[in-house]
What we know:
The complex is a heterodimer.
Chain A: E1 4-13, E2 18-27, E3 30-38, H1 45-49, H2 57-61, H3 69-83, H4 89-121, H5 126-132, H6 134-155, E4 164-165, E5 168-169, H7 175-201, E6 214-217, E7 228-231, E8 236-237, H8 242-245, E9 246-249, E10 258-261, H9 270-277, H10 283-292, H11 304-324, E11 341-349, E12 352-360, E13 366-372, H12 374-393, H13 399-412, E14 425-430
Antiparallel strand pairs in A: 1-2, 1-14, 2-3, 4-5, 6-7, 7-8, 9-10, 11-12, 12-13
Helix pairs in contact in A: 3-4, 4-6, 4-11, 5-6, 6-7, 7-10, 7-11, 9-11, 12-13
Chain B: E1 4-9, H1 18-29, E2 36-41, H2 46-50, E3 57-64, E4 73-76, H3 97-106, E5 113-120, H4 132-158
Parallel strand pairs in B: 1-2, 1-3, 3-5
Antiparallel strand pairs in B: 4-5
Amino acid sequence: MRKKTVNIDVPVLARVEGEGALHITVGSEGIEKLQLNIFEPPRFFEKLLAGRDFMEVTDIVTRICGICPVAYQISAVQAMEDLFAVDVGSWVRDMRRVFYCGEWIESHCLHMHLLAAPDFLGYNSVVEMAVDHAEVVRRGLKLQGLGNDLIKLFGARSVNPVGVRPGGFYRAPDLSSVQQLCGRLQEALPEAFELLRWVSTIELPEVQQEFISVAMKSADSYAITHGDIVSSTGLVLSAAEYDRYFVESHVAHSTALHSLLDGKPYLVGPLARMNLNYAQLRPEIRQALRECAVDFPSNNMFHSIVARAAETCQAIMDSIEILQAYELPATSYVPVAPKAGVGYGASEAPRGLLWHRYEFDQQGLVRHARIVPPTSQNQARIEQDIGLTLAAMGLDLPDEELRLTAEKVIRNYDPCISCATHFLDLRVSRS
Amino acid sequence: MNHITVTGLGSSNGDDSIGWVVASCVQEQLQDALPVRVLSCDRTGMEWLYRLRPDGALYLIDAVYSNGVPGTIVHYPDISELPMVSLPHRSSHGLGLPALLSLAQTLGLLPRRVEFWGMEIANHKPDSPLTKSVSQAVEVMASRLCVSIYRELAHLVKH
Lengths: 431, 159
């Protein structure tokens, strides 16, 4: 019997502050064992939150992620406002959407240009890619910078912003700053559509897989900050019902929890959203996708990059529409009084559904916090995808090719470990 | 419009904060009206890159750790002379300073002049203060940097 053991080790990961490895054992019948190990050191954020005042929560959770802090803040305030029965009003809801759009633009452009595109175009990094595609990279940087500026507009800074508070924002941006940024968004919109057309010309691997998509869905818009949690299997849930259906468990090979729906892996993120919310996408974007001949729903996981480009267009268009009607409010937040109980919040982080649950006491102190990030929800799906993709391409291929493909699959999900998977170290032993 | 960007790199870990401390000192010493932008960053990310101006000058300030005497000022008027080693696994998205400078050059974003100012440090322990020899060299380094910036401004005015 042929036995081939492939160990892909990631000794130190950036951003996840952890270690990871991919272990694949291939026997005569195919893949016998496949484990994506994430040794992400426990960061104890949920424990750090315990005992803290509700007004401190947004400034703590913003520190969880440097790339998607807005998502953590919005899911958190929604959980609190849910429990405290606060109606923040349309101004706050609209501005939170713009704030969040900034994060989508920034995060998606970072991933498309720095991580995904070099993979698909055969470069080792964006530095190499820029030699042949300088204009593409320049455009990507410009759009990413615009996303960062939107975050800054409401959050004072783009990394770990501090503008959000329960009930609204600490301050409202002045009209001239809003108008100036709105003008830049309008100017950049054609470039976002050029980006969409460009990614659709990239020759992507044709790998068709069956998988469950999970995302938020809203009747009135492409869901970002509010909506039901829905699945391609027909599930429709409120945030409060989430943990009745989605079960997190600890697996020995990873410190990050695995999450399953009915015992099965599922997908969250841009492709899941596009698969479930295509009809809510703006007509101009649907038209552009038809012209690009990329159809959604899609079972090709590599269409995630096209989904990211389409969502970038959506985020810019939504931001323009909201900011064009901007008026300085009398107050940028409504008063909030805490009460005891449990609140739930969910929103669509760039990488997918981000769910929060908080239990507060009468004084508004956190008794218990639980946070389920998208990367943890996608982990089982990533393992499943690697197995299916490698099996489809042929397990007898050279180890280097297997490693590169496995890396490409992992990065396609834009997990927090994606940057570090550049350094996958392959060791092969055969018997 | 800021033609000169001063970027202090570092962290809050002991002497590793030297980039921030010197950048702050430079800001205090320079007149507000000058077209100089002073930034303190924990890394040079893509956003930083996008804000570079190819027609200007860039001054990078960072800690140096090469077993030299703590407080020693290291100055490279031309950063291409600086022996930089890309340390894998240490930088978000695999783009450390050398890679970013290389990318900036490829994209035509690299300022005409990039100077590196470093200081040999003794420790980078979390929450520890600057060591005495490093602290004593801050003013000297900031003053020398300001002289260089004024010279560059004079050059920009002339041309």
